[in-house]
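for ur thesis appendix - Major facilitator superfamily (MFS) profile domain-containing protein. copy paste whatever u need, i formatted it the way the template wanted (i think)
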Amino acid sequence: MPTTGALTSQFGCRKVIIAAMALIILVIPMLAVITDPILLGLAQLLFGIGVGITDCAMNIQAILVEKESSISLMSGFHGLYSVGGIAGAGLMTFLLALGINVTLATVVIILCVVILAALSYPGLLAYANPKEGPAFAMPRGIVLLLGVVCFSVFLTEGTVLDWSAVYLTQVRAMPETLGGLGYTCFAVAMTLARLTGDKVVKYCGRLKVVVVGAMIAALGLAMVTFIPLWYLSLIGYALIGAGCANIVPVMFSVVSEQKVMPQAVAVPAMTTLGYVGVLSGPAIIGYVAHFSSLSISFSLIMLLMLFVGAISFRLNLDQTGSSREK
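the 3d part is after this line
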């Protein structure tokens, strides 16, 4: 991810996105057939490189498109990202349920990706932000604050992804066959909130969306943590998804307007810091739970979302780009 800004500045969004997607397409079949742990690890490393560059380059293009259109589009972009995640998991599950073997099912997924890439190609930008400064720099100033917010939200998302089923089945005594419903409620609510997020941002403003979203997510975490009824926990997970949904898209819109760091450096720096939350979140939760309990771990995440709401007032989210430079 940290190298993506320099790559897009040099080659443009189109070439970088297509090259990264080609790497993903080439590696996916390996994930289905490799049995050696070391080779599988190397294949996953290459897959992660492709996904990381694609993710970051798409956000760089999204920022450019939003700036040129002068209207809020970022939540919709991220909403379709969420739709893709649900569609991919659903399609793969459907194919396997039909009795199709993993390799053939993977080929079907690859064909879908190739078709989508071909349809997207004309709309990919042949340019990106001009290269200014180093290829990579640590986030500073407002970019650091934006990255901290992304880190906190991604950490929360990672916690729900990796620990919701364990929590529901082991703490709330939910049947194991239904353990995945927590993340399902979270993902569906997040997707719906993102698809409507641009209109909400337009009418309510960025600051209200972020602060209220953080409060809703904290309320959802409180329901999950303190109400001992698993069906209310499902509502709690839905609230977490709806609350977190539009916070990160707003951060990407804001980073495009700051002048503290060049965009070619700022976007990858903020994105990388955010995704550290996805990696570290589940491990942190597990570590804290080992010495206390999952309920205490979730309580800390609730406090983290309250922190996101509080720090948002420091970002002047509804002010002009020149105000954000301070």
